[in-house]
Specification:
Shape: globular
Order of helices and strands: HHEEEEEEEEEEEEEE
Helix content: 10-25%
Radius of gyration: 53 Å
Structural class: alpha+beta
Strand content: 15-25%
């Protein structure tokens, strides 16, 4: 009986010693929970989640991504208006035909005496062609076989060239004689030849015109003067 008791005490001591050793850490400073998860700091956890999230940077900020609208590679669109950068060929909206000179070939010219002012005659040029034409400078007029050309009144020179679209008219006025009789070499003309100028002063502008004069003719003298071509009749109505 005594020997059996000694053996039981020895076995109990060995079990206590083994339990103590298993409960102590390697350094002997505390217990160790074998079933617990490893401790992770909140910051490290957030960074790890961000790394795994699609479309995110490592700092958790949405990743910047270049985006080009479908069918607009390299282009620019103004919202809603459909305007794109660049100019499409053939869509400028212009006819592409530059103006031509107005002359006797593409216009109809009339010469009509004016009741006011006295001794004045109105020249009207109407574009009968299919293209816009320009009336440059002033008309060069010649009555019968006269050997001189009347001067133009500089004060009537417009700021822009008179331009006539098809069907439109331009105007000029002639002062035929001095109202006070101071003019010289007065005579009556039966024929009027009107010459057009080109792009430079006194250059040939093309075909001439011979508008019909009144049956009784037109009296003129050395004071014969003309105006520049005008876009509107109002510009010379009181000249």
């Amino acid at each position: 009986m005594r020997m059996r008791h000694i053996r039981l005490l020895a076995a109990a001591g060995t079990a206590v010693t083994a339990l103590a050793l298993s409960a102590c850490g390697a350094g002997g400073t505390g217990t160790k929970d074998e079933g617990a998860s490893r401790s992770v700091s909140p910051t490290a956890a957030t960074a790890t989640a961000a790394d795994k999230a699609p479309g995110k940077t490592s700092a958790g900020t949405p990743a910047t991504r270049a985006h080009t609208p479908p069918g607009k590679a390299g282009g620019t669109r103004t919202g809603g208006s459909g305007t794109t950068s660049g100019t499409a060929s053939g869509t400028s909206g212009t006819s592409g035909s530059s103006p031509v000179l107005c002359n006797g070939a593409n216009t109809r010219v009339t010469a009509r005496p004016m009741s006011r002012p006295l001794n004045h005659m109105l020249l009207t040029v109407t574009n009968t062609g299919r293209r816009t034409c320009e009336l440059t400078y002033y008309p060069i007029v010649r009555f019968d076989e006269m050997q001189w050309a009347p001067q133009a009144d500089k004060d009537t020179q417009p700021q822009a060239v008179t331009t006539l679209k098809p069907g439109e008219s331009g105007y000029a006025s002639m002062r035929l004689s001095a109202a006070d009789g101071s003019g010289e070499g007065g005579t009556t003309a039966r024929k009027l030849t009107l010459m057009f100028q080109g792009m430079t002063p006194n250059s040939d502008g093309g075909a001439t015109a011979t508008p019909t004069l009144p049956a009784k003719g037109v009296y003129y003298d050395s004071s014969l003067t003309v105006t520049y071509w005008q876009q509107s009749l109002d510009d010379i109505a009181a000249w």
